[in-house]
Amino acid sequence: MALVAVIALVWVLANGSRRPADSVYGHLEQFQALAEEHGDRAADSPGYEAAAEYVEDVLEEAGYATERQYFTVDHDGEVFETFNVITETAAGDDEEVVMIGAHLDGVPGSPAINDNASGAAALLEAAKALSTQEEITTTVRFAWWGAEEYRRPHGSRHYVQDLAEQDELETIRAYLNIDMIASPNPIIGVYNAQDPDAWLDVPEGSVQIMEFLGGSFDDQGQPWTPTGWDIASDQQPFIRAGVPVGGWFTGSEERKSRLEANTFGGIAKAPRDPNYHTAGDDLDNVDEQTLEIMSAAITDAATRLARDSSVLD
């Protein structure tokens, strides 16, 4: 509790009376309302369209121009069209791009608040923070991915393939992924680029990203732990393309260890998120303190990288 209060105070001093999670939680309330109105936010649904329109409205109010990147999903004979939502800072070097992304879709029949409205909401607040940042030397590109909740993450996969076809992969300095950052029995996790059991190769530069993200928590006195490199999410297409990758994660259905419970609190041997991919993944499922810690860290990382991406060297 004391640590959370310290982090909140830092943000109050830096950003005025409003803490980052106040707005992040407000976005979660909007995503919850849209899921209730439309049934869910699955990729091929009115709820997904409504969520995308909400994201676009928030970004455009902050001064961003947004783009929809359409693609076709063929899943077990079910074929449909959906899209990613992309935007980026107006300032910065277009040959030195840092990307930060979170999937916007959820599983059918679920409000999908921790997985992954939490990431989509934190990404919105990071983008809003950069819209008023005056010292931007590195372009920061934000992506709300579509159709992640399948055997492969279709939206990010399509985007990476398009970059390769346009010979633009080399412009991506790093990709940072946000997926599930408000789990009710959480860890504070950073993708482990030193995982000896990873079955996906680790692109050069990923260890520096892990150290950078972990160092941000160290600076706040916040415990953190390396977590699985091979998590099934939108970082995988970037890894396969050789782009340096990092990311944040607080847990899904895997069970919390005794060591993790001693470090982060919560219940050992219980799922980090008992409502993973169920109708119970609603506002009551999220841990607001964890949401606050993670959203603050994401905004801090985006701001520092926009100013100088050489911190990843």
What features would you describe in this structure?
40% of the residues lie in helices and 18% in strands. The chain has helices spanning 2-15, 20-38, 46-61, 113-130, 154-165, 206-219, 235-240, 258-264, 288-307; strands at 67-75, 78-88, 93-103, 138-145, 172-178, 189-191, 225-227, 245-249. Mean pLDDT is 93; it is low at 1-19. It has 313 residues and is of the alpha/beta class. The chain is built from nine helices and eight strands. The chain has an eight-stranded mixed beta sheet, with helices on both faces. The radius of gyration is 18 Å and the shape is globular. The longest helix is centred in the C-terminal third of the chain and has 20 residues, at 288-307.
How far apart lie the N and C ends? 34 Å
Cα shape:
globular
What is the element string, with H for helices and E for strands? Answer: HHHEEEHEHEEHEHEHH
Q: Round the Cα radius of gyration to an integer and report it.
A: 18 Å
Count of beta strands: 8
The proportion of strand residues reads: 15-25%
Biggest sheet, open or closed, and with what strands and sense?
Answer: 8 strands, mixed
How large is the count of helical segments?
A: 9
Uncertain residue ranges: 1-19
Structural class: alpha/beta
Average per-residue pLDDT, rounded, comes to 93
